[in-house]
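Comment thread on ticket #2218

A.B. wrote:
> Attaching the input chain for the structure job we discussed in standup.
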Amino acid sequence: MLVAAACAASSWCQMQINDVIARRYELREALGDGGLGRVYRAFDERELREVAVKVLDASRCPADAVGRYLALAGSAARAKHPAIAAQRVQAASDGAPPVAVSELLAGEDLDALRGRVGALPWRRAAEIVATCAEALTALATATGGITICMTPR
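C.D. wrote:
> Ran it. Output below, let me know if you need it in another format.
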C-alpha cells in the first residue's frame, strides 16, 4: 500500500508492514518505538538495500519537535563513529508522515544481549559504556550539543 494523502487527515498513521513511504521505502519490520515515532527496518526500492526508517508521530510531541528533530538529524549526519547510524534522508512528502532514513546498523541491542547471556562481565559492560561515550562525544561535536534523539539499548 502506498502511504499518501490519506495519512494527512491523521497526525499519526498506523503504518503496516509492506506499506511504501515516500514512493521509495517499503516497511518490513517494526524495530522499536521512541518518543517521536516508530523505527522500521525498510527496503529502499531506489538504492536496493535495507535501511532504518523512523516514522515521526507529530501527535506524540510538541508542534515544533518534528522540525527540530529533522534539523538535528541533518546536523547529526556529520557525526562519524561506528556506533552512529549515518543519516541519509529526512523527508515529508505526498501527505505521508515525516520520516528520517538512516543506514541500518547490524547487531544486537543490549536488551537482547542481556536476555541471551544474562549479566554482563564488568569488562564487557565497561567496553559498551566507553563505546557509547565515544559515540555521544562524536554526536555532540557534530551537533553542537547533547541530543535526546537516541535509544539506550
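A.B. wrote:
> Thanks. Noting for the ticket: Residues 122-143 form the longest helix (22 residues).
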